Amino acid sequence: MAPLEQYRIFAAVAKWGSFSKAAAELHKTQPAVSQSIKLLERQIDAQLFVRTSRGVTLTEAGKILQSYVEQALSAFESAENHINQLKTLEHGKLYIGASDTLSQHFLLPYLKKFHEKYPHVNLKVTNRTSQDTVDLLNQGKVDIGFIHIPTEVKEHISVLPLLELHDTFVYNEKHFPFIKGEFLLNDLQHFPLLMLEKESSTRQYLDSFFKSKNITLSPEIELGSHDLLLSFAEIGLGIAAVVREYSQKELKNGTLKEIKLKSEIPSRTIALIFRNKIPLTFSAREFISLLGINISPNNVFIAKDKQTKL
User: Fold this and answer.
1) What pTM was computed for the model?
2) Which CATH number belongs to the domain containing residue 31 in this structure?
3) Partners of 258 in the beta sheet?
4) Is residue 310 part of a domain?
5) Is residue 171 located within the same domain as residue 218?
6) Cα 114–309–255 angle (5° rounding)?
7) Tens digit of pLDDT per residue, the chain (310 long)?
8) Do 130 and 99 contact (CB within 8 A), yes or no?
9) Is the same domain home to 83 and 38?
10) Whole-angstrom Cα distance, residue 200 to residue 223?
11) Separation of alpha carbons 108 and 1, rounded Å
């Protein structure tokens, strides 16, 4: 098959009926255009033009070829325009995986900013636990994911830490006025606890940590969302296991207070994950850039500024 450039030259000569005008349009010399046509005729074994004193006209074979070449070049042009639109995010899609807690307390402002900037990109967020988000990424059902780590991931997945999180226990002082001073970790067993359901990555992390200390926490109430934990704690239904960074409003206005522990619970991290062997879409790279992270077209981490925050 002849190179695409030869067909571009053929199309220009057919349009103008002149080697010199085609050469001018393509910014080539006339001999180069003439040589290209001769080579194309030799490759397809057919005469394409009849040379006259006024220029050139298409032969029957030339007319057949012209109809196909025009369609092909138009398709290539459409493809290039489509790609340019993807690059400028005039359309496209972005599928994100994250837990509902991460979506609400971390992702929401970035989702808002991205949608306002690129309203024609189809944005879809699938809420799953961190481990399920990893599975969705493995299956190619999401472009990028946001998880709490530690979470088990495969070698072909890149993990970029974004923000440190701290688990804590909070209470309403009006309902638990006797909570004073510092407590040991095993003292928590004696409080009426409010915790997330066992399937959540936060609950699994806490259960694993306390188990390593030979402590078993048995909550009186298990809930499906972080905000419900805060609400239940505010009305005095128990001591809630929450994330400090997700509870700043309640802690700052004094409706809830933290239990002071003599031993800190090890911190966790919000992390971005993506498949390192598959190029990120334009929309995924642009969304990641809103986090202050630059990823090259071949998925190499370039730089991260200090913009990522709650």
Assistant:
1) 0.69
2) 1.10.10.10
3) 170
4) no
5) yes
6) 115
7) 778 899 999 999 999 999 999 999 999 999 999 999 999 999 999 999 998 888 899 999 999 999 999 888 888 877 776 676 666 677 788 999 998 889 999 999 999 999 999 898 889 999 998 999 999 998 889 999 999 988 888 888 999 999 999 999 999 999 999 999 999 999 999 999 999 999 888 999 999 999 999 999 999 999 999 999 999 999 999 999 999 999 999 999 999 999 999 998 999 999 999 988 888 888 888 899 999 887 765 555 555 554 455 5
8) yes
9) yes
10) 10
11) 51
The two three-digit tokens of residue 150, written as one number: 């530690």
Whether residue 280 sits in one domain with residue 248: no
Considering its fold, how many domains does the chain have in total? 3
Cα–Cα dist 274/185, whole Å: 36
Q: Which long-range contacts (CB under 8 A, 24 or more apart) does 186-190 make?
A: 186/213, 186/215, 188/215, 188/217, 188/239, 188/259, 189/215, 189/216, 189/217, 189/218
Q: How far apart are the first and last CA of the chain?
A: 56
| Residue positions counted in the chain | 310
Host domain of residue 20: 4-87
Rounded CA-CA distance 291/221 in Å is: 35
Q: Of 51, 56, 132, 149, which is closest to residue 97 (Cα–Cα)?
A: 132
Which amino acid does the sequence have at 275?
R
Residue 172 lies in a domain: yes
The CATH code of the domain that includes 138 is 3.40.190.10
